[in-house]
C-alpha cells in the first residue's frame, strides 16, 4: 500500500483529451478543480459540488462522470474527455450544429456537461437498445431552456442518423 | 434581406458549445489574486459576543481575516429607497439576522485553504428570538430585527384609486380569500462570482462580477464604499451563466470583496458555492395576500381590495420593496377595473434578504388574482374563460390607462384567448374531465391564466414606496433608458457596444440582426461587445438586464445608434456625389441612388473619416462612433395622486394547462400546456420561444416543486439541490405549445415588447386552476406537492 | 465546498484495508465516491484518512457459480444494470438500479458503496433484501457472510464492524420462471425515493411457489417479506391475495413524516405501488391472466 500525507504533493498522470499530463497535486484536490485550475481547461463548469447539477460532467474512461465527485488522485492513469476534447472532434460537428440550430443552450453554463452526456449516449444507442433520454437528461439541470431546445436537438440528431442509416 | 424577425441561430453558441465561454470563475484579470471563503452565521438571529480569529493566521497560505467591525472603517450602510431604512452592510456587525449572513472573510492562496481557515474561527453567539412568520412579525413581533423598526415593517403604503368602498358595497358577490406565495428562487447553474482590486496608490476600485444591473445599483455600491462614482469601476465577464434576476443581488458581495481587497492589500476572488448560494444569496419575496373582489351578478369585476405582506428578509435591500411595486401599474391585470384599494407591507424576517427573481412581483400578484377569477367563475357558475373575457379590456380601449396609472399600449386580449382555447381543445377537454369524475383515483382538470406582462421598467416606480409628500421633498425619478454605440473602424470593421449585460438571452445575435439590417452589411462583419465596463461603456442608471427590457429598450438603442451611423455615412456620400442624401439608400453595404449602385461602400465611407479626415466636408466629423441613449416613452415619474406607469410597455399571454391528478398519491401530471403570447413584433422568434420555454419551466417549477422552506428556527431545510427541486427534463411536459400574436408596440421603433417572464407569472395560477378544476377544491398556496394535494383532498372529504 | 485535508492511501489488497481500518482512527473507504465525496465537499464528512479500493484486485468482478451471482464491492451500478438487463429471473434488479440517480452517477457509483451506505430509501439495499442476498465481509477475525436482513440495522448503519470491509454481495439466482418488478415514487426523476417497492415472484405451472415483496423509504431500513405460506400454490395474484400479502408487509413499516410526504401518504404509496409491482411481476414471471 502507498500512503500520502495530507499536505504532501502527489504525482498523478492523466490523459486528458488525448494529451498526457503529469502534475503534482494535493490528495484532496477535486478532479473538477484539477481540470480547471491545474490544466486551465475551464470548459468544465462547476455548479453545485454535490453531484446534482451535472455542469461538471466529463467522460472518465468513456463513461460520463461528475468531476466534482472524483478526487484527481483517485483517477490516476485515467482517460478523460472534456468539452475541449469534444470540440476538437469532427465526429461531433452534427451535435454542435443541432444544439445551435435548435437553440438548445442559452447561458451555456450547463451545456458542456450536457453535450458530453448526449455525445456518449448517442454513441451507445441502437435500435435494439434505445437510449432513455429522460434518464440521460435528468442528470443535468438547465435553468434557461426548459429542456425544449435540448430535446429538439436530440430529436433532430436521431432523425438525421436514422436517415443516414437507411440511406 | 432583412434579418430582423428571422429565427437566426446565435453567434454566441460557437464559443459556448466548444467550451470557450469566459465566465467569472474562468478569469484572472489581475495578477496576484487571492481566494476568499466566508464564515457565515449558523443562527437566524443572534448577537455576536466575540469573534476569535487568532488561530486563522497560523494556517499556511492565509493572507488575512476580516470581520464586520474591521470593515466599518471603510464602509457605509447601503442606501435603500424607503423612508425608514435599516443599517444594511454586506457583513454582520455585532448581530446576525439570517442563517448564512457573512460574519468573517478569510483570504488565502487557495479556496481550499480559505475554507480550512474559516473552520478555526470561533464565534460566541447569544441567540435571540427568531422572527419567521410574516404576519406575526409585524402584528405580534417576537423580536425586532432592527431597533428603528420595532414592528419589523420596512415599508407601509396605502393606495385608493376610484371609490372601492362604494363599488364593493354595491357588488352582488364578494370573494374574500387569503393566498400564500412561497419563497422560491432563480437558482442559476452558475453561482455568484466576484474579483475585486483596490489600487492603493489611486484609491480606485475595480470589481469584476457576474452582475447584470440594474446599474442604478452602481451608485448604491459607490455610496457603501464611501467613494465618488468614478472611483468604482465595474466590469462584467464575457459570459454570465444565467441569472434570471438573482445575480443583481451579487452587489453586496462586490462591496464586501472590494473593501476586503482594500484592507488586505491584494486582489481577491470569491466564487460562491452552491450551499452559500442557497442559504445566503437572495430569493423572491414570499407574500401573503388578502384579496376581496366584488363581482356583479353577470360576472363583471367591480373593485378589488388587496392587502399584501411581503417577506423581504432580514434587511430591506435595494431595489426592494420593488416586488410590491413593479406591477403597480397593472394591478388588475387584463381586466377593466376602476376601483382599487391596496395596502402594502414590506416585512422583515430572519431570512435572507430578497431581490429580483424572474417575474419579479408578477407571480405574487397574479397567483391570487387569477385564482380569484376561477373562484368567482365557480360561484357564478360561469365558464372561467368567459368570465375573463367579460372583464377584458377591449381592443378599442387601447391605449388604456389603468386605475393605478399604467398605460397599456396595445393588445387584443380576446383574440389571444380565442387562440389559446382553440389550441388546447378547451371545450372538449372540459367535457372529458367532467366525465372522468368519480371513476378511480385519477382526475382530469383544465385551468387557465391571463396575464398582462409588463416590460421595460420605469425607474420611477420604485419611488412610489414613498408617500407623495415624501417624494415632493426629493428629486423626481423616471425613465427607462438604454445606450449603445456603433463604431466602424478604418477598414470597415463594425463594433457594437451594448449596455444590456446579457446572461444567455442572445443579445449579441439580435444586435447583429439590427445593425446588419440598417447598414445592409453581413452579420459576420459585426462584432458585439456585451461586456459592461462602467468606465468605458455608455450606460445609465437603468442599464442592465432585468424587466425583460432588451427587446423594448436595448434593441432600440442599438437601432438608433445604427441609424445615426447610417445617416452620417449617407450625408458623407451625398456630399461626395453632390446630391441630396434623401435620394440615397444603402443596399448590400453600398450606397445606391435612384439610377443604381454607386461605388461608395460602407467600408469606403467609414475609411474616408479615418484615413483622410482633413478633406472631409464641413459638418462631417472624423471617425464613425455613434452612441445613442434611447428612452422608452411613457415612463414619467409618479404623480401626486400616486399614479404611475410602472412599465413602458405591456404584452399579454393566456395559458391553458391540462392536468391529471392522482387523488391517492397526490401526483400531478401536466398532460398538455398551451401558452399564447402577444409581445408585439418578434425580433428573433427562435430566441423568443427559447425565453418562453425557460420562463415556463420556471413557472412550472414554482407551481409544483420549488420552495425555500425554513423551519421555526430560521434554518433553511431545502438547502441543497437534492431538496430544492429544480425541474429536470422529465418534469417538463413534452406536449407544450407556444403560439404568438403580433400586436405592435406603438410607441417603440422596432415594435417589440419584452417577454420571458410572463409564464413565471401565469403558470402557478394556471396549474392551480387546473388542479382546482380536477379536484373541486380551491387552492390557496404553492407549490402543489403531493403532500399538499393529499391535504386538499382530505380537506374536501372533511378528513383534513 | 472543498474537502478538508486527509491522508490518502492506495490499498493494494483486502488485508491492507483491514490493517488500515484497524489502526487508523476516522479512516474511510473510498469506493465510487458518489455520496462520500459530496459529503466531504460539504465538510459533513471529514475522514482523517481515505483508503481507495481502486487498486485492490478482485473487487470489480461479477461471477456466477453454484446458483449465486457474486458482485464485487467495486462493481459500478451501471455495469450490473446492463449485465442483468436481460435476466428475467432478476427482473426487478436492472429495473431498480435504473432508478438510482442518473447515468452520470451510476457510471461511478458502486454496488458496494450504495449497500454499505445503507440509505433507508435507496434502491440497492431494498433489492438485496428482496432477492435474499447477503453481504460478504472481511475483517481481522476473518470472512463473514451476513444475510441482508441482518446487515441493515438502522438508517445509514449496518452490521459492518469498524475494521471490516465489504468485499462482495451475493445474489442467489431464482428459478427461471421468475419475474420481478420495481416501482418508485419520487418528486423528480432520479431523486431519492419517497417510496420504492420491489416484488419478486417465482411460479411453476401457473402457480405461485415463492416470492418477496419489499419497500424502501418507509422504515429505518428497507424491509421485505416472503410470500405468505397460504398464497403458495395459488394460481394468480388476485386483489385479495395482493391485499393479504401487503398486510404482511405493513407491520414492518414505520414511515417517516416529512416535507415530501406524510406517513399516511407513504403507506398509501406502498399499497398502490405494491399492487402494481405484484401484478407486473406475475406477468413477467409468465403468469397468465386466467
UniProtKB/TrEMBL annotation, chain A:
<keyword id="KW-0411">Iron-sulfur</keyword>
<dbReference type="InterPro" id="IPR002888">
    <property type="entry name" value="2Fe-2S-bd"/>
</dbReference>
<dbReference type="Pfam" id="PF01799">
    <property type="entry name" value="Fer2_2"/>
</dbReference>
<dbReference type="InterPro" id="IPR006058">
    <property type="entry name" value="2Fe2S_fd_BS"/>
</dbReference>
<dbReference type="InterPro" id="IPR036010">
    <property type="entry name" value="2Fe-2S_ferredoxin-like_sf"/>
</dbReference>
<keyword id="KW-0408">Iron</keyword>
<comment type="pathway">
    <text>Alkaloid degradation; nicotine degradation.</text>
</comment>
<dbReference type="Pfam" id="PF00111">
    <property type="entry name" value="Fer2"/>
</dbReference>
<keyword id="KW-0479">Metal-binding</keyword>
<feature type="domain" description="2Fe-2S ferredoxin-type">
    <location>
        <begin position="10"/>
        <end position="86"/>
    </location>
</feature>
<keyword id="KW-0001">2Fe-2S</keyword>
<dbReference type="InterPro" id="IPR036884">
    <property type="entry name" value="2Fe-2S-bd_dom_sf"/>
</dbReference>
<protein>
    <submittedName>
        <fullName>4-hydroxybenzoyl-CoA reductase subunit gamma</fullName>
    </submittedName>
</protein>
<dbReference type="InterPro" id="IPR001041">
    <property type="entry name" value="2Fe-2S_ferredoxin-type"/>
</dbReference>
<keyword id="KW-0560">Oxidoreductase</keyword>
<dbReference type="InterPro" id="IPR012675">
    <property type="entry name" value="Beta-grasp_dom_sf"/>
</dbReference>
<dbReference type="InterPro" id="IPR051452">
    <property type="entry name" value="Diverse_Oxidoreductases"/>
</dbReference>
<dbReference type="GO" id="GO:0046872">
    <property type="term" value="F:metal ion binding"/>
</dbReference>
<dbReference type="GO" id="GO:0016491">
    <property type="term" value="F:oxidoreductase activity"/>
</dbReference>
<dbReference type="GO" id="GO:0051537">
    <property type="term" value="F:2 iron, 2 sulfur cluster binding"/>
</dbReference>
Automatic annotation (TrEMBL), chain C:
<dbReference type="Pfam" id="PF00941">
    <property type="entry name" value="FAD_binding_5"/>
</dbReference>
<keyword id="KW-0560">Oxidoreductase</keyword>
<dbReference type="GO" id="GO:0016491">
    <property type="term" value="F:oxidoreductase activity"/>
</dbReference>
<dbReference type="InterPro" id="IPR002346">
    <property type="entry name" value="Mopterin_DH_FAD-bd"/>
</dbReference>
<dbReference type="GO" id="GO:0071949">
    <property type="term" value="F:FAD binding"/>
</dbReference>
<dbReference type="InterPro" id="IPR051312">
    <property type="entry name" value="Diverse_Substr_Oxidored"/>
</dbReference>
<keyword id="KW-0274">FAD</keyword>
<dbReference type="InterPro" id="IPR036318">
    <property type="entry name" value="FAD-bd_PCMH-like_sf"/>
</dbReference>
<dbReference type="Pfam" id="PF03450">
    <property type="entry name" value="CO_deh_flav_C"/>
</dbReference>
<dbReference type="InterPro" id="IPR016169">
    <property type="entry name" value="FAD-bd_PCMH_sub2"/>
</dbReference>
<dbReference type="InterPro" id="IPR016167">
    <property type="entry name" value="FAD-bd_PCMH_sub1"/>
</dbReference>
<dbReference type="InterPro" id="IPR016166">
    <property type="entry name" value="FAD-bd_PCMH"/>
</dbReference>
<dbReference type="InterPro" id="IPR005107">
    <property type="entry name" value="CO_DH_flav_C"/>
</dbReference>
<dbReference type="InterPro" id="IPR036683">
    <property type="entry name" value="CO_DH_flav_C_dom_sf"/>
</dbReference>
<protein>
    <submittedName>
        <fullName>Molybdopterin dehydrogenase</fullName>
    </submittedName>
</protein>
<feature type="domain" description="FAD-binding PCMH-type">
    <location>
        <begin position="1"/>
        <end position="176"/>
    </location>
</feature>
<keyword id="KW-0285">Flavoprotein</keyword>
Amino acid at each position: 500500500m502507498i500512503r500520502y500525507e495530507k499536505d504532501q504533493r502527489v504525482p498523478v498522470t492523466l490523459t486528458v483529451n488525448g494529451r498526457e499530463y503529469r502534475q503534482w497535486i494535493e490528495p484532496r484536490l477535486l478532479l473538477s478543480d484539477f481540470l480547471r485550475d491545474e490544466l486551465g481547461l475551464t470548459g468544465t463548469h462547476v455548479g453545485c459540488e454535490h453531484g446534482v447539477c451535472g455542469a461538471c460532467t466529463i467522460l472518465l474512461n468513456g463513461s460520463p462522470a461528475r468531476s466534482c465527485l472524483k478526487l484527481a488522485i483517485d483517477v490516476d492513469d485515467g482517460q478523460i474527455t472534456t468539452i475541449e476534447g469534444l470540440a476538437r472532434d469532427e465526429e461531433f460537428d452534427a451535435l454542435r450544429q443541432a444544439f445551435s440550430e435548435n437553440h438548445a443552450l442559452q447561458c451555456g453554463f450547463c451545456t458542456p456537461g450536457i453535450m458530453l452526456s448526449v455525445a456518449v449516449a448517442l454513441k451507445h444507442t441502437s435500435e435494439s437498445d434505445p437510449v432513455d433520454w429522460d434518464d440521460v437528461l435528468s442528470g443535468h439541470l438547465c435553468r434557461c431552456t426548459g429542456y425544449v431546445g435540448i430535446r429538439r436537438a436530440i430529436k433532430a440528431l436521431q432523425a438525421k442518423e436514422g436517415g443516414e442509416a437507411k440511406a | 434581406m432583412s434579418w430582423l424577425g428571422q429565427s437566426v441561430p446565435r453567434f454566441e453558441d460557437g464559443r459556448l458549445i466548444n467550451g470557450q465561454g469566459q465566465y467569472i470563475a474562468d478569469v484572472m484579470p489581475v495578477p496576484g489574486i487571492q481566494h476568499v471563503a466566508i464564515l457565515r452565521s449558523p443562527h437566524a438571529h443572534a448577537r455576536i459576543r466575540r469573534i476569535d480569529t487568532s488561530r486563522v493566521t497560523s494556517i499556511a497560505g492565509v493572507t488575512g481575516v476580516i470581520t464586520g467591525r474591521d470593515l466599518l472603517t471603510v464602509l457605509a450602510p447601503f442606501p435603500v429607497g424607503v423612508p425608514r431604512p435599516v443599517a444594511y452592510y454586506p457583513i454582520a456587525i455585532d448581530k446576525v439576522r439570517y442563517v448564512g449572513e457573512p460574519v468573517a472573510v478569510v483570504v488565502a492562496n487557495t479556496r481550499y485553504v480559505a475554507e480550512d481557515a474559516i473552520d478555526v474561527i470561533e464565534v460566541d453567539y447569544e441567540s435571540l428570538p427568531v422572527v419567521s412568520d410574516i404576519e406575526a412579525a409585524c402584528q405580534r413581533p417576537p423580536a425586532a430585527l432592527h431597533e428603528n423598526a420595532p414592528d419589523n415593517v420596512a415599508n407601509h403604503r396605502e393606495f385608493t384609486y376610484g371609490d372601492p368602498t362604494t363599488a364593493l358595497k354595491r357588488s352582488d358577490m364578494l370573494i374574500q380569500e387569503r393566498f400564500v406565495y412561497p419563497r422560491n428562487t432563480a437558482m442559476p447553474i452558475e453561482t455568484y462570482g466576484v474579483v475585486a482590486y483596490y489600487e492603493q496608490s489611486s484609491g480606485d476600485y475595480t470589481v469584476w462580477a457576474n452582475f447584470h444591473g440594474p446599474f442604478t445599483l452602481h451608485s448604491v455600491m459607490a455610496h457603501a464604499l464611501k467613494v465618488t462614482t468614478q472611483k468604482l469601476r465595474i466590469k462584467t465577464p464575457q459570459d454570465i451563466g444565467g441569472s434570471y434576476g438573482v445575480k443583481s443581488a451579487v452587489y453586496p458581495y462586490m462591496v464586501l470583496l472590494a473593501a476586503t481587497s482594500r484592507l488586505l492589500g491584494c486582489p481577491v476572488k470569491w466564487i460562491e458555492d452552491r450551499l452559500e448560494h442557497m442559504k445566503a444569496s437572495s430569493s423572491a419575496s414570499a407574500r401573503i395576500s388578502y384579496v376581496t373582489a366584488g363581482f356583479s351578478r353577470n360576472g363583471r369585476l367591480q373593485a378589488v381590495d388587496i392587502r399584501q405582506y411581503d417577506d423581504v428578509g432580514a434587511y430591506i435591500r435595494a431595489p426592494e420593496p420593488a416586488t410590491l411595486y413593479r406591477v403597480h401599474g397593472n394591478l388588475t391585470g387584463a381586466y377593466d377595473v376602476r376601483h382599487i384599494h391596496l395596502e402594502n407591507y414590506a416585512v422583515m424576517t430572519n431570512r435572507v434578504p430578497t431581490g429580483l427573481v424572474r417575474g419579479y412581483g408578477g407571480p405574487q400578484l397574479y397567483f391570487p388574482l387569477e385564482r380569484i377569477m376561477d373562484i368567482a367563475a365557480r360561484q357564478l357558475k360561469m365558464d372561467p374563460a368567459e368570465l375573463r373575457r367579460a372583464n377584458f379590456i377591449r381592443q378599442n380601449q387601447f391605449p388604456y390607462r389603468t386605475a393605478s396609472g399604467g398605460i397599456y399600449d396595445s393588445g387584443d386580449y380576446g383574440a389571444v384567448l380565442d387562440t389559446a382555447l382553440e389550441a388546447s381543445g378547451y371545450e372538449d377537454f372540459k367535457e372529458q374531465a367532467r366525465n372522468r369524475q368519480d371513476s378511480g383515483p385519477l382526475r382530469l382538470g383544465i385551468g387557465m391564466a391571463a396575464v398582462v406582462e409588463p416590460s421595460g421598467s420605469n425607474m420611477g416606480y420604485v419611488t412610489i414606496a414613498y408617500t407623495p409628500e415624501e417624494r415632493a421633498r426629493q428629486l423626481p425619478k423616471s425613465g427607462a433608458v438604454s445606450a449603445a454605440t456603433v463604431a466602424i473602424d478604418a477598414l470597415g470593421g463594425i463594433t457594437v457596444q451594448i449596455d444590456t449585460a446579457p446572461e444567455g438571452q442572445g443579445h449579441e445575435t439580435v444586435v447583429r440582426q439590427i445593425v446588419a439590417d440598417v447598414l445592409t452589411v453581413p452579420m459576420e462583419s459585426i462584432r458585439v461587445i456585451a461586456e459592461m465596463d462602467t468606465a468605458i461603456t455608455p450606460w445609465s442608471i437603468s442599464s442592465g438586464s432585468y424587466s425583460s427590457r432588451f427587446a423594448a429598450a436595448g434593441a432600440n438603442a442599438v437601432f438608433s445608434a445604427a441609424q445615426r451611423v447610417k445617416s452620417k455615412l449617407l450625408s458623407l456620400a451625398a456630399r461626395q456625389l453632390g446630391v441630396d442624401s434623401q435620394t440615397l439608400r444603402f443596399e448590400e453595404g453600398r450606397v445606391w441612388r435612384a439610377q443604381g449602385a454607386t461605388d461608395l461602400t460602407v467600408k469606403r465611407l467609414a475609411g474616408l473619416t479615418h484615413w483622410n479626415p482633413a478633406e472631409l466636408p464641413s459638418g462631417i466629423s472624423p471617425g464613425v462612433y455613434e452612441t445613442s441613449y434611447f428612452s422608452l416613452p411613457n415612463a414619467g415619474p409618479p404623480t401626486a395622486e400616486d399614479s404611475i406607469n410602472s412599465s413602458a410597455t405591456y404584452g399579454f399571454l393566456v395559458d391553458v394547462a391540462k392536468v391529471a391528478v392522482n387523488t391517492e398519491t397526490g401526483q400531478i401530471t401536466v398532460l398538455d400546456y398551451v401558452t399564447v403570447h402577444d409581445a408585439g413584433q418578434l425580433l428573433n422568434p427562435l430566441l423568443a420561444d427559447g425565453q418562453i420555454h425557460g420562463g415556463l419551466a420556471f413557472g412550472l417549477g414554482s407551481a409544483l416543486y420549488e420552495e425555500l422552506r425554513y423551519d421555526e428556527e430560521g434554518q433553511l431545510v431545502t438547502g441543497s439541490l437534492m431538496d430544492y427541486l429544480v425541474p429536470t427534463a422529465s418534469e417538463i411536459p413534452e406536449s407544450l405549445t407556444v403560439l404568438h400574436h403580433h400586436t405592435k408596440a406603438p410607441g417603440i421603433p422596432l415594435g417589440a415588447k419584452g417577454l420571458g417572464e410572463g409564464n413565471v407569472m401565469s403558470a402557478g395560477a394556471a396549474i392551480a386552476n387546473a388542479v382546482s378544476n380536477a379536484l373541486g377544491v380551491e387552492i390557496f398556496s404553492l407549490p402543489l406537492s403531493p403532500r399538499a394535494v393529499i391535504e386538499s383532498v382530505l380537506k374536501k372529504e372533511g378528513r383534513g | 465546498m472543498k474537502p478538508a485535508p486527509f491522508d490518502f492511501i492506495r490499498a493494494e489488497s483486502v488485508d491492507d484495508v483491514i490493517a488500515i481500518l484497524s489502526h487508523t482512527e476516522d479512516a474511510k473507504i473510498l469506493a465510487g465516491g458518489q455520496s462520500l465525496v459530496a459529503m466531504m465537499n460539504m465538510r459533513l464528512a471529514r475522514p482523517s484518512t481515505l483508503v481507495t479500493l481502486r487498486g485492490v484486485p478482485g473487487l470489480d468482478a461479477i461471477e456466477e457459480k453454484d446458483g449465486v451471482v457474486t458482485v464485487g464491492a467495486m462493481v459500478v451500478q451501471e455495469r450490473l444494470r446492463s449485465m442483468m438487463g436481460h435476466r428475467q429471473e432478476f427482473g426487478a434488479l436492472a429495473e431498480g438500479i435504473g432508478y438510482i440517480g442518473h447515468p452520470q452517477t451510476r457510471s461511478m457509483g458502486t454496488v458496494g458503496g450504495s449497500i454499505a451506505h445503507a440509505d433507508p430509501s435507496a434502491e440497492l439495499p431494498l433489492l438485496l433484501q428482496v432477492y435474499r442476498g447477503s453481504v460478504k465481509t472481511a475483517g481481522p477475525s476473518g470472512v463473514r457472510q451476513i444475510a441482508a436482513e441482518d446487515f441493515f440495522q438502522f438508517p445509514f448503519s449496518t452490521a459492518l464492524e469498524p475494521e471490516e470491509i465489504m468485499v462482495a454481495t451475493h445474489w442467489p439466482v431464482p428459478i427461471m420462471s421468475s419475474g420481478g418488478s420495481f416501482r418508485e415514487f419520487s418528486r423528480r426523476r432520479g431523486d431519492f425515493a419517497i417510496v420504492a417497492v420491489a416484488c419478486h415472484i417465482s411460479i411453476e405451472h401457473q402457480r405461485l411457489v415463492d416470492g418477496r415483496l419489499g419497500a424502501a423509504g418507509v422504515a429505518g431500513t428497507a424491509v421485505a417479506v416472503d410470500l405468505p405460506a397460504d398464497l403458495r400454490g395459488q394460481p394468480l395474484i388476485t386483489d385479495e391475495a395482493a391485499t393479504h400479502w401487503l398486510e404482511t408487509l405493513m407491520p414492518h413499516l414505520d414511515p417517516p413524516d416529512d416535507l415530501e410526504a406524510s406517513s399516511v401518504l407513504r403507506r398509501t404509496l406502498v399499497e398502490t405501488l405494491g399492487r402494481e409491482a405484484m401484478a407486473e411481476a406475475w406477468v413477467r414471471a409468465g403468469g397468465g391472466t386466467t
